Amino acid sequence: MRWYHPSINSDAYESLKSYGLHVIKNDSIRKQLGGIYENEWIQTLNARQDDYFANTIAPILTDLFESYEFGGEMKPVDYDELRKSKKYNHILKTMLAKREYQNRNYTLF
């Protein structure tokens, strides 16, 4: 149930910008760099993940588990109810899909 928040160190890009992006003659590379550093998509993704956890996952976990801690043991209140929970299964499938999406996109950089 953990979220991992990647970050991109943009110091070199900021230095390049202050010197002038014109030194990169290849238009495609220059645009790709801007897409990575200027769009702030990672911050948007992180905020969405935090919102999803706080507003969707956490309330359901408190109903289905006696307690949970990040990286710790999660003991279900009722294992059979947990297995049948459509909400919990939906959360697991959604989290898996989000992680697969992240892995595909993060490996591009």
Task: Characterize the structure shown.
There is one protein chain. The model has no long low-confidence stretch (mean pLDDT 83). The relative contact order is 0.12. Strand 1 and strand 2 form a beta hairpin. With 109 residues, this protein is mainly α. It has a two-stranded antiparallel sheet. The protein has 2 domains: 30 residues, no CATH class; 70 residues, no CATH class. The two termini are 25 Å apart. The protein is built from 5 helices and 2 strands.
- Strands, total number: 2
Tell me the series of helices and strands, N- to C-terminal. Answer: HHHEEHH
Q: Sketch the major β-sheet.
A: 2 strands, antiparallel
Q: What is the arithmetic mean of pLDDT?
A: 83
Shape designation: elongated
Q: Helix fraction?
A: 55-70%
Number of helices: 5
What order do the strands of the largest sheet run in, or round the barrel if closed? 1-2
Span of the ends, CA to CA: 25 Å
Quick take:
This protein is mainly alpha-helical and 109 residues long. Helix content is 66%, strand content 5%. Strand 1 (65-67) and strand 2 form a beta hairpin.
